[in-house]
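Interim report to the steering committee. The following record documents the input for Tripartite-type tricarboxylate transporter, receptor component TctC (323 residues).
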Amino acid sequence: MQKRTFLLATLSAAVGLSLQGAAQAASYPNRPIELVVPHIATGSTDLAARVFAKYAEKRLGKPVVVVRIGGAGGYNGSRAVREDKSNGYQVLYTHQGIIANYLTKVAPYSYDGFKVGPTVAENATVGLYVSGKSGIKSIHDLLARARAEPGKFRAGTEYGTYNHFMFLKLQKEQGVTFKLMNTGGDAGRVPALLSGTVDVIAKTYSGTQDYLTSGDFVLLGEPTDKRAPNAPEVPTYKEQGLDFTFPPYMFTLFFNQNTPQAIVDTWAEVAREVTSDPAYQKEIAALGMAWAYKSPQESAAAYASTQKLMADLVEGASPVAKQ
């Protein structure tokens, strides 16, 4: 009898929570929503989030306000949403850096510490750049120089971030060793290459055209299976005879675990509509990115695949930031 009473009570509680979630979803949203960006202002994540927010609020009928919570490579912002109790009024807008935070032990959770929502944009243009004065003209020249100077060829990166893992993959697969230097994000990496403090950096294509035109930078290619739609003039490494790829940045929505699934589903439908809008597609392309739609299920599968790849690079050992 006690067992039956317990089961009935448990079932009743579950039904109550389900009904409560459905009721919340039915009235959602009834106030402004915060789209939390855990990175710097005017960075690619921030800019893409602002475009998405503009189109999302037209469909939701309430303001979608971009709020930046920076620091700790994105951990501060993701933690704010993970600890949020508003049930869908704080939504995280980020990329696979959330996996890097976990693997480098900056954060005690990864992408699966949240309910994964839809993906609304991608950027596959994280190429390798060298100085125009270096004499390096191709990815093969770069690898030859790195092999000739093991541990001395300086790579500017931000420790524990997504592009750091790209360097780790290149090292592992091509048998080279860079001197990895923590120059921070784009605001630090670009001046470091211009000044000669580092010899190579990884960066998205957006914002580099002037440096390429002036000859200050040489872009060695991109780590994609086929040319990125937002940079069709840039060849892949595969085209140059080097079988090296790395997953594109995926700009994805994440929700606190307590968020009713019906609210996540609402955002999935909003995202599908927004990414189908030619005006949104045009604005995202103007940022040097590509529009994309992946369902929450497809997004979660893609993040799981990327986490396996990145975890294999560090083999679950100490933080890569200690290299």
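The first helix runs from residue 2 to 26. The committee is asked to note this result when reviewing the revised timeline.
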